[in-house]
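Re-running the complex after MR caught last week's input typo. The corrected sequence lines follow. Everything else is unchanged.
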Amino acid sequence: DQQVKQNSPSLSVQEGRISILNCDYTNSMFDYFLWYKKYPAEGPTFLISISSIKDKNEDGRFTVFLNKSAKHLSLHIVPSQPGDSAVYFCAASEGDYKLSFGAGTTVTVRA
Amino acid sequence: DAGITQSPRHKVTETGTPVTLRCHQTENHRYMYWYRQDPGHGLRLIHYSYGVKDTDKGEVSDGYSVSRSKTEDFLLTLESATSSQTSVYFCAIRRGLAGVTSTDTQYFGPGTRLTVL
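Corrected-run output:
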């Protein structure tokens, strides 16, 4: 059973607006969370991460929020740009150096 | 760029034939991983290695074996390929984020697209 779930397979957003990607998890032992971005025919690239001791981490246009009580994290991209069109994967680890991934959300940024 | 290459990048093979995929890294990282990516599943861990000759199973290891005789190379072998093993395979290494000592993250190679007919 998947421990990390991305329930929205796709998201369409207008250029310049905010993109919000959501991720839910079931394993309360997860203590490190990551977001990866993937373009077609390329490997996933690391985007941003957050430790379970924090509730927010920001890097430029990307911010990740963690709500441990709800077992929920989200990725905000502001403002969205055409180059942000990609598949985004949420991933989590329980400190054992292995990652569990969600199924991914395809983001399309419209001009 | 994490200095990871995968070979071949594309392969078409027939059911029942053996297949070996190679992952090569240039940065001397201890941990290496093999994943497969399938629609609706994201990436799933097949096997990983925590040093030369030290390997362990992931969540979808049936039908796969691995070997690591050198730090820089991690091989994934399908002893007898099946159509269910048609997938995109990614290798990854683990290293720390610059300036961050308490967390490590994984960096991925470009992938190998395998088709088993």
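None of the earlier attempt is carried over here. Residues 20 and 77 of chain B are 4 Å apart (CA to CA). The mean pLDDT of chain B is 92.
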